[in-house]
Design goal:
The complex is a heterodimer of chains A (142) and B (166). Chain A is α/β, with parallel strands linked by helices. Helices cover 37% and strands 15% of the residues of chain A. Chains A and B meet through helix 4, strand 5 and helix 5 of A and strand 5 of B. The complex binds iron/sulfur cluster (SF4) (3 copies).
């Protein structure tokens, strides 16, 4: 088990939650993984498809009223310890949707956020910079 | 055999992956990143606050001048502020290094004070307005317009109608 937790510390798995984003940030997240020009996996991490496997959570979107409960439920499925990264100004402050009746964000009202990556959307390099910060936190927390 | 040529080409070109974060990233000069503000050329028209799509800009009138505040965490880098600013006091730099820890969330703020001017004749408080606005309004300076520029509307009217005896 010791070996496993040591290995996990070096290679966190990323998981993506869309909390009602316009998809701009999600496209940039896909870009970081799918386009060789950015290639986030050089940092030793990779995207996974199940919340149960996740170590670092990347959340996009302003947490719309409609999707809130579902997002919180998926978030609860992610085992602790985990590191949460807010991608884009939407989850951080609400961005252009701030103070709208349709949103419940900013997301830190409901979940503990560790790193913020503002931008609308942030460019892939900025996202990689944020993930690098999250990996640093993860290495201490895991 | 065409693939051999592609293989050779790829070998010659080297990896397509950018060095960042292990090296510098390429950033176009026109990239819209962090907003910068120059209080010396701002004329306090509040246009940037009015058009700001993210509601990131706040102006408030205080004793010592016009207080400008921007919270970068709700700026969507749309560039409207820079587009509508008459004197280009507000601009978007190509700095995109904005990621930060949650503890610093509310520190992502820039604050500046645009000082009021005083009427050179009666000392009344005037809206800010530097040489930049003067240049814009009159397409070039002349000593008379320069003198009038630093006066309040009342004194300006007196000088214009009655002459220099104010
Ligand atoms: S931050 Fe901008 S690009 Fe990202 S989800 Fe919100 S509106 Fe879309
Ligand atoms: S770039 Fe757009 S959102 Fe940002 S301060 Fe300017 S007007 Fe506001
Ligand atoms: S920054 Fe430009 S648009 Fe904004 S108040 Fe100053 S002069 Fe007007």
């Amino acid at each position: 088990m010791d070996f496993l937790s040591k290995a996990a510390r070096k290679s966190p798995w990323l998981y993506r939650i869309n909390a009602g984003s316009c998809n701009g940030c999600d496209v940039e997240l896909a870009t970081t993984a799918c386009i060789p020009r950015y290639d986030v996996e050089r940092l030793g991490c990779q995207y996974c498809g199940s919340p149960k496997h996740a170590d670092i959570v990347l959340i996009t979107g302003p947490l719309t009223a409609r999707v809130k409960d579902k997002v919180l439920r998926v978030y609860d499925e992610i085992p602790d310890p985990k590191v949460t990264v807010a991608i884009g100004v939407c989850p951080i402050s609400g961005g252009v949707f701030r103070e709208s009746y349709a949103i419940e964000g900013p997301i830190d009202r409901y979940l503990p956020v560790d790193v913020n990556v503002p931008g609308c959307p942030p460019r892939p390099q900025a996202i990689i910079e944020g993930i690098a910060k999250a990996i640093e936190i993860w290495a201490k927390r895991a | 055999m065409a693939f051999l040529k592609i293989l050779l080409d790829n070998l010659r070109k080297g990896p397509a992956t950018e060095a960042f974060p292990f090296g510098e990233a390429t950033t176009p000069d026109a990239y819209r990143g962090k907003v910068t503000f120059d209080e010396t050329s701002c004329v306090g028209c509040n246009m940037c606050e009015h058009v700001c799509a993210g509601g990131a800009i706040r102006f408030s009138e205080k004793e010592d001048g016009l207080h400008f505040l921007i919270w970068h965490n709700t700026c969507i880098s749309c560039g409207l502020c820079a587009h509508y600013c008459p004197t280009k006091a507000i601009k978007l730099s190509n700095n995109w290094h904005l990621s930060h820890l949650q503890e610093e969330k509310y520190e992502q703020v820039d604050h500046a004070v645009v000082p009021y001017r005083e009427c050179t004749s009666c000392g009344k408080r005037l809206q800010p307005g530097g040489p930049m606005l003067h240049q814009l309004a009159f397409k070039g300076a002349n000593p008379r317009s320069e003198r009038l520029m630093n006066m309040c509307p009342d004194c300006r009217r007196k000088v214009s109608y009655i002459g220099e005896a104010v």
